[in-house]
Prior knowledge:
Blueprint: E1 2-6, H1 10-21, E2 25-30, H2 33-39, E3 45-48, H3 54-57, E4 67-70, H4 76-88, E5 94-97, H5 101-110, E6 114-116, H6 123-131, E7 135-140, E8 145-151, H7 161-164, H8 166-170, E9 173-184, E10 190-199, E11 211-217, H9 218-227
Parallel strand pairs: 1-2, 1-4, 2-3, 4-5, 5-6
Antiparallel strand pairs: 7-8, 8-11, 9-10, 9-11
Helix pairs in contact: 1-6, 4-5
Amino acid sequence: MKYLIVGLGNFGASVAEKLTSQGNEVIGIDNKMNKVDLFKEKISHTICMDATDELVVSGLPLKETDVVIIAIGEDQGTNVMVTALFKNLGVKRLISRAVNSLHEKVLQAIGVDEIVHPEEESAERWAKKLCFTGVVDSFELSDDYSIVEVNVPKRFDGKTIKEIKIRETYDLLVLTTIANTEMKSIIGKTTKVTNVKGVANPNDELNKDDILVVYGANVAIKKFLKDS
């Protein structure tokens, strides 16, 4: 996978380093040369440039880039300008950082694909979400093992945990499942409700809209998601 990260502050640099260490090609961009120099040995490629300059930005390999992350946080105005610029250039997947609710609303109006809240979400979790397609959330226990929430593959719909043979095939342990259901209020408003089902039972039946919480080696999780 190829990533482009704009803003090498604490969050942006951490995500860039983790994605690079996991074998991805990452271009890290910042307008401060000292930050570019600081991370040039830790990130695949680093560039010092003004990301608000459309002519310069349009020269980047955007068509070959899978995900663009706008990690600028200290200057909301610049964040919005840069986000809008990349959106107009039609990148495949655009993720931007929000620092408050108003900022988030502006980014939603621009039409970003996802919004990051670094104060609430770690760089480690975002790196795993980006690398492993289908991951909803994750908790890294060590460099090699994690607990992750993953969407139930369609091929498991209607089957029990025992029938999918995830332990035998992938050496992964299902800890629990989370059901997503919709409920209507007395005024007719529909809201989504999540229900953690408790410790997983081999006879628990899976639904394609559910979430599996699994534990295992990162390489096994990656293989499971690739097969799914």
